[in-house]
Design brief:
Blueprint: H1 2-29, E1 34-35, H2 41-59, H3 65-69, H4 71-80, E2 82-90, E3 93-100, E4 103-112, E5 115-122, H5 139-145
Parallel strand pairs: 1-2
Antiparallel strand pairs: 2-3, 3-4, 4-5
Helix pairs in contact: 2-4
Protein backbone atom coordinates (compact mmCIF):
# COMPACT_ATOMS: atom_id res chain seq x y z
CA UNK A 1 0.00 0.00 0.00
CA UNK A 2 2.82 2.39 0.86
CA UNK A 3 4.63 1.67 -2.41
CA UNK A 4 1.51 2.35 -4.43
CA UNK A 5 1.01 5.67 -2.64
CA UNK A 6 4.68 6.57 -3.14
CA UNK A 7 4.54 5.71 -6.84
CA UNK A 8 1.36 7.74 -7.33
CA UNK A 9 2.77 10.77 -5.51
CA UNK A 10 6.03 10.62 -7.52
CA UNK A 11 4.06 10.40 -10.75
CA UNK A 12 1.97 13.42 -9.74
CA UNK A 13 5.11 15.36 -8.83
CA UNK A 14 6.74 14.57 -12.18
CA UNK A 15 3.58 15.58 -14.07
CA UNK A 16 3.41 18.82 -12.09
CA UNK A 17 7.05 19.67 -12.89
CA UNK A 18 6.55 18.89 -16.59
CA UNK A 19 3.37 21.02 -16.68
CA UNK A 20 5.16 23.96 -14.99
CA UNK A 21 8.05 23.68 -17.43
CA UNK A 22 5.61 23.63 -20.35
CA UNK A 23 3.78 26.71 -19.11
CA UNK A 24 7.02 28.67 -18.63
CA UNK A 25 8.34 27.56 -22.02
CA UNK A 26 5.07 28.59 -23.70
CA UNK A 27 5.00 32.01 -22.00
CA UNK A 28 8.64 32.64 -22.95
CA UNK A 29 7.94 32.00 -26.64
CA UNK A 30 5.00 34.40 -26.95
CA UNK A 31 5.73 37.56 -28.95
CA UNK A 32 5.71 40.84 -27.04
CA UNK A 33 3.68 43.73 -28.56
CA UNK A 34 5.96 46.51 -29.80
CA UNK A 35 4.86 50.15 -30.09
CA UNK A 36 6.73 52.64 -32.23
CA UNK A 37 8.60 50.29 -34.54
CA UNK A 38 9.59 46.70 -35.19
CA UNK A 39 11.97 44.50 -33.20
CA UNK A 40 13.17 41.11 -34.46
CA UNK A 41 12.25 38.01 -32.45
CA UNK A 42 15.88 37.50 -31.34
CA UNK A 43 16.00 41.06 -30.03
CA UNK A 44 12.74 40.55 -28.12
CA UNK A 45 14.08 37.36 -26.54
CA UNK A 46 17.30 39.13 -25.51
CA UNK A 47 15.30 42.00 -23.98
CA UNK A 48 13.11 39.48 -22.14
CA UNK A 49 16.20 37.77 -20.68
CA UNK A 50 17.71 41.08 -19.58
CA UNK A 51 14.51 42.26 -17.88
CA UNK A 52 13.97 38.90 -16.11
CA UNK A 53 17.60 38.94 -14.92
CA UNK A 54 17.16 42.50 -13.63
CA UNK A 55 13.98 41.46 -11.79
CA UNK A 56 15.83 38.57 -10.11
CA UNK A 57 18.66 40.95 -9.12
CA UNK A 58 16.12 43.39 -7.66
CA UNK A 59 14.22 40.74 -5.68
CA UNK A 60 17.31 38.86 -4.43
CA UNK A 61 20.08 41.50 -4.05
CA UNK A 62 22.10 39.66 -1.39
CA UNK A 63 21.89 36.85 1.15
CA UNK A 64 20.71 38.88 4.14
CA UNK A 65 17.89 37.89 6.48
CA UNK A 66 15.70 40.60 4.97
CA UNK A 67 16.05 39.00 1.53
CA UNK A 68 15.28 35.57 2.96
CA UNK A 69 12.19 36.86 4.79
CA UNK A 70 10.92 38.48 1.58
CA UNK A 71 11.48 35.28 -0.41
CA UNK A 72 7.80 34.15 -0.65
CA UNK A 73 6.65 37.58 -1.87
CA UNK A 74 9.56 37.80 -4.31
CA UNK A 75 8.89 34.35 -5.76
CA UNK A 76 5.19 35.21 -6.14
CA UNK A 77 6.06 38.42 -7.99
CA UNK A 78 8.58 36.70 -10.26
CA UNK A 79 6.16 33.90 -11.08
CA UNK A 80 3.32 36.30 -11.89
CA UNK A 81 5.35 38.90 -13.81
CA UNK A 82 4.53 39.23 -17.51
CA UNK A 83 6.13 41.48 -20.07
CA UNK A 84 3.21 43.56 -21.30
CA UNK A 85 4.70 45.60 -24.12
CA UNK A 86 7.82 47.22 -25.48
CA UNK A 87 7.73 50.87 -26.51
CA UNK A 88 10.51 52.24 -28.68
CA UNK A 89 11.21 55.74 -27.37
CA UNK A 90 14.26 56.44 -29.56
CA UNK A 91 16.27 54.26 -31.94
CA UNK A 92 18.59 53.26 -29.09
CA UNK A 93 16.16 53.49 -26.14
CA UNK A 94 13.15 51.35 -25.23
CA UNK A 95 10.73 51.00 -22.34
CA UNK A 96 9.41 47.61 -21.25
CA UNK A 97 6.19 47.39 -19.21
CA UNK A 98 6.07 44.45 -16.79
CA UNK A 99 2.78 43.50 -15.10
CA UNK A 100 2.58 41.56 -11.84
CA UNK A 101 0.28 41.19 -8.84
CA UNK A 102 2.06 44.11 -7.19
CA UNK A 103 1.67 46.66 -9.98
CA UNK A 104 3.19 47.69 -13.29
CA UNK A 105 6.89 48.44 -13.53
CA UNK A 106 8.63 50.14 -16.43
CA UNK A 107 12.19 49.18 -17.31
CA UNK A 108 14.09 51.63 -19.50
CA UNK A 109 16.82 50.03 -21.57
CA UNK A 110 19.26 51.66 -23.92
CA UNK A 111 21.44 50.11 -26.56
CA UNK A 112 25.15 50.73 -26.36
CA UNK A 113 27.64 49.04 -28.69
CA UNK A 114 25.09 46.43 -29.74
CA UNK A 115 24.05 45.37 -26.20
CA UNK A 116 20.97 46.40 -24.21
CA UNK A 117 21.67 47.89 -20.77
CA UNK A 118 19.11 48.62 -18.05
CA UNK A 119 18.96 52.33 -17.30
CA UNK A 120 16.22 52.38 -14.65
CA UNK A 121 13.20 50.66 -13.11
CA UNK A 122 10.26 53.02 -12.55
CA UNK A 123 6.64 52.91 -11.41
CA UNK A 124 5.64 55.52 -14.02
CA UNK A 125 6.08 55.40 -17.80
CA UNK A 126 8.41 57.80 -19.61
CA UNK A 127 5.46 59.31 -21.47
CA UNK A 128 2.24 59.42 -19.46
CA UNK A 129 -1.00 58.66 -21.31
CA UNK A 130 -2.70 61.70 -22.87
CA UNK A 131 -5.03 63.61 -20.57
CA UNK A 132 -8.65 64.17 -21.52
CA UNK A 133 -9.97 67.71 -21.60
CA UNK A 134 -11.94 68.98 -18.64
CA UNK A 135 -15.68 68.47 -18.93
CA UNK A 136 -18.14 71.13 -17.77
CA UNK A 137 -18.86 70.60 -14.11
CA UNK A 138 -22.31 72.16 -13.67
CA UNK A 139 -25.61 71.06 -15.17
CA UNK A 140 -26.48 74.31 -17.02
CA UNK A 141 -23.01 74.53 -18.56
CA UNK A 142 -23.17 70.94 -19.70
CA UNK A 143 -26.68 71.10 -21.14
CA UNK A 144 -25.97 74.52 -22.70
CA UNK A 145 -23.07 73.04 -24.64
CA UNK A 146 -25.38 70.34 -26.01
CA UNK A 147 -28.08 72.80 -27.05
CA UNK A 148 -28.96 73.42 -30.71
CA UNK A 149 -30.03 77.00 -29.97
CA UNK A 150 -28.03 79.77 -31.60
CA UNK A 151 -27.04 82.63 -29.34
CA UNK A 152 -26.88 85.78 -31.44
CA UNK A 153 -26.12 89.26 -30.22
CA UNK A 154 -27.05 92.39 -32.27
CA UNK A 155 -24.98 94.96 -30.46
Amino acid sequence: MKRKWLRTSLLCLVLFVVACFGIFAWSASRPIPVIGGVLPKEEQNRIRQIVKHEMWKHEFPDSSWKTISRCPRALCELAAARLGLIEILRPNMIEVAVRSHFGIYYFRLWKREGAWLVQSREKLPARPPPRLGDLPKTGPEFFGSLSNQVKVSFQ
